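@channel sequence for tomorrow's demo:
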Amino acid sequence: MKNDSIKNWLTRFIKGVFIALGFILPGVSGGVLAAILGLYERMLNFMAHIRQNFKYDFWYFVPVGLGGIAGIILLSNPLEYLLTTYKAIVLWGFAGAIVGTLPSLFRESAKEGRQRSDWYIFAGTAVLGGLFLYNMTAIFGDMPVNFFSWLLAGGLIALGIIVPGLSPSNLLLYLGLFDPMIKGFKSADLSVFIPMAIGGLITLVLFSKVMHYLLQNFHAKVYHFILGIVVVSTLLIVVPPVADYSGFTVISMLISAFLFVIGVWLGYWMSHLEQKYK
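structure tokens (generated this afternoon):
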């Protein structure tokens, strides 16, 4: 029995390492990975009804959380190198992964029917959201990297867990928080980890019930809003100023195109994998 307990603990720890991919890789959703690994429904139920069986569920998810922290630290070093050395090329691969998930998101958005107003929400979100994000720096200036911006980053990542298919890392890229986040993860900087953990927990506790209610009552509208954000934020990560094309060559262009295609395939495959294990 003791060996089974150790095995189950290690299994959940390893699952946490894989879910960490959804925290730091644009195009990969933590919610999708949690669904694939059989943790999503239990996790959402725990967050939505946190006082029920709190002690049992808390200790169940401890190894998942520890695995997530370990995965973040392990993956941050190679990711920082790639984004520092080949940023524009790598971003095209990430963009492809996000594009590959769009068919699944479109199918999910129509699961309970689709009305003309849903398309208006999608178009309005894409246009107005795109204009806002693109001009955000001109309006508000550069986003400072401080305790409150890390709270925001943690909250966005938590949304990617609550809503399978939503990858918040591309928003973090555009907000200028992704690179410093990876550097903080790489060095296990508690000034990054702690506020992100606080922001993530607050978002999970506050929005799990809200998201459950919205998806139950306004499923199509919520998903068309998400689609608008996903489409426009994906477009914006491959245009300046996020992507730097200085020194870009024909070879760089070909590699970017290749990684984009590979990314589309990977995102499409992961989406189907999620449907299989739901």
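heads up for whoever presents: DSSP finds 13 helices and no strands in the chain.
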